[in-house]
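Ticket #4471: structure output looks truncated?

Reporter: J.K.
Steps to reproduce: submitted the chain below (158 residues) through the standard prediction queue, then opened the result file.
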Amino acid sequence: MRTHDSGMDSSDEHLDDDRTATRFEQVVDLDATIEAAWTALSDPGELAQWLGASVELDVRPGGRGRVVDDDGTVREVLVTGVEERHGIAWHWWSDDGELSSVELRIDERDGHTRLHIVEMVVLGPTLTDARPTMAACSRRWTAATSRLWSRVGAARFA
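Returned output as attached by the reporter:
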């Protein structure tokens, strides 16, 4: 697995209501076919193997679900888009009020698959330093993509 992590080079966008959205990005090269990567992104049973400690998700536009992070954070999920063999998008939020939009896109590159992760986190008006939030995004996605790589790599070479 090769990771191109630009997550700490976040960009901010100011919203109309004194909040800021901060963008986390990570690119991961997976040694897997586009079909194996798509199955890992779109099959609820496969998502449960790598995305978090527990995942229940209806993977279709308007589908709902829940993800429990490794640290126990519970996130409610609303799927906003699914493009067959190309990507999935959702909004998710935790009980502490953090809201973000996630987009996972895949494309084929020279026999492997490149996964693009973008998470836009909406920060409240009282949060002045986005670095802890971006560090948490980086930890979460690094752990998840490591499990994903193990999962699709093992399936490909088994």
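Triage note (M.O.): checked the attachment and the full token line is present. Confidence is low (pLDDT under 50) at residues 3-10.
Status: closed, working as intended.
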